[in-house]
Write a structure and sequence with these properties.
- The structure is a homodimer of 132-residue chains.
- By secondary structure, chain A is α+β, with helices and mostly antiparallel strands.
- Chain A is 22% helix and 28% strand.
- Chain A has helices spanning 8-20, 97-101, 115-125; strands spanning 23-25, 33-35, 41-51, 57-63, 74-78, 82-85, 90-93.
- Strand 3 (41-51) of chain A pairs antiparallel with strand 1 (23-25) of chain B.
Chain lengths: 132, 132
């Protein structure tokens, strides 16, 4: 950044930077809205799966109530396919409709230590598994 | 790792590695026990503060019900002072009794975007602020 007097643009930049640093309580994650890049709300987060040791989010467990005819099932999305948008106050998910329609669902008794399940979800979205 | 046949020790190592990869649901964080290195249970986690963009844990908000005479107040601990111990099924906190007794408490309306508050907590425990 150039050393100029702080103008409107850089103030906005600073504000955006602050917003990027926003924190959320683990017990208030539920209900966080999820959007398309165009601003369409497509669902909400039910919970985040957190790696105990590193404290890193690995999956967002999502509900798409009615979007694309998806029912009340929950779906694990790799954290890396979510982008927080401070203006929308929620996450953008940039995957195709087709991908969402056939998304691997969140089974009730998922064994999260099962690398095959983790790999299947990651492969589905074309991202590396969270442990890599 | 050397290419030897898998023996008891490396099996144990693999199991520990798996345990290190354990995940926890954001809505099940509450109540996670916190220990001393000697195994004494000293309190529990009420919630984790998660950075929205990166999805990283920044603070554990802890209760020390009665430990060292600490009351029902909550205290923010920088995530970096917690170490997950798979054997105990909880986190170890390696700070001195003296540090805990005078720990900065969690004010009801903490402004998490206030760098001064974040810096004060980090400085208190002698760790870098989470944003560095």
């Amino acid at each position: 950044m150039r050393n100029t007097a702080m103008g409107t643009a850089s103030k906005a930049g600073a504000a955006a930077l602050e917003a990027n640093r926003d924190l959320i309580e683990s017990d208030r994650v539920e209900g966080t809205p999820v959007y398309r890049s165009n601003g369409d709300r497509i669902g909400h987060i039910e919970r985040i799966m957190i790696e105990k040791v590193s404290g890193k989010a690995t999956y967002a467990i999502m509900h798409f109530g009615g979007f694309l005819g998806m029912g009340e099932e929950a779906y694990p999305l790799p954290w890396s396919v979510l982008t927080y948008n401070p203006e929308l106050g929620g996450y953008e998910v940039n995957v195709s409709d087709e991908q969402l329609k056939n998304a691997p669902s969140y089974e009730d008794n998922v064994d999260w230590t099962d690398r095959n399940y983790g790999k299947r979800v990651a492969d589905y979205y074309g991202v590396p598994p969270y442990w890599l």
